[in-house]
Amino acid sequence: xxxxxxxxxxxxxxxxxxxxxxxxxxxxxxCYTILCENKKTYCVPERDLRQADVPVMNTDDIIGIYFxxxxxxxxxxxEMLANEYPDDVLYLLRHMNNEL
Length: 100
What we know:
This protein is α+β, with helices and mostly antiparallel strands.
């Protein structure tokens, strides 16, 4: 899914996610690694992300490292990401079937 990082006003695509320790909150928060239009990655807490209004990115030269194709509003994960996040693949397939 293409998202906008509110705090940086940048668009990007989620390439990884996981829990990060937050010492101030004395717990863990869900964070996402986002590959942005500037070809840099950022670790961003979930609260700072919104779905992008216009799902278009121009990072074709490096997007293939993580994704196989763009379909609708989502990039489809390549085999590496699909193996690492199998539940996300199931979510995408259900999401795409609902759009038909």
